């Protein structure tokens, strides 16, 4: 298949999409060059585009069989309650999330999945839920329990988190930013594989959208 991986980050969701080698033709879109460089180290055979994923979807959606999108989640996260308690400046939820869901549901003829965190508000479009994530998709998404406690363990070191994710950010990546944030922003590879299988109809039922 031709797969479009939007807001790809360093590719946690994509890691198990090609268990037998280069099974798919994958294009990843990432806004930051230094993060795209790490993705390239992990997946050198993917096509990597440094661009605005939201606009890239609009311009290129017809070229793909399956589209995965993970728009930025901070403005939707339940962490906004904590920000409010600390007196931080609040912002409106970024509606690009729902723009992409509506657009894909209405105009895209292939299979697709959009991921985000569970929101602090009632979702405007009913999602499927798996773990701490919301998913909207062309097909039914069943729940999946991740047994590895990668997140929400304050005593877990960055090295342990990376080992459990199977995504090791070594010094040769030359990344100067916060590596913990990169790892925390990753979708667990097992969940990424599960969502791909669901979105392709292996567990297809009538969508809730």
Topology (SSEs and partners):
Layout lengths: L1 E5 L18 E6 L2 H10 L4 E4 L2 H8 L5 E4 L9 H7 L10 H12 L3 E7 L10 E3 L2 E5 L20 H8 L13 H6 L4 H11 L10
Parallel strand pairs: 1-2, 1-4, 2-3, 4-5
Antiparallel strand pairs: 5-7, 6-7
Describe the structure in your own words.
It is a single chain. The protein is of the alpha/beta class. It has a single domain (2-199), classed as 3-Layer(aba) Sandwich (Rossmann fold), CATH 3.40.50. It has seven helices and seven strands; from the N terminus they run E-E-H-E-H-E-H-H-E-E-E-H-H-H. It has helices spanning 33-42, 53-60, 79-85, 96-107, 158-165, 179-184, 189-199, and strands spanning 2-6, 25-30, 47-50, 66-69, 111-117, 128-130, 133-137. Strands 3-2-1-4-5-7-6 form a seven-stranded mixed sheet, sandwiched between helices. A hairpin with a 2-residue loop joins strand 6 (128-130) and strand 7 (133-137). The relative contact order is 0.18. Mean pLDDT is 85; it is low at 204-209.
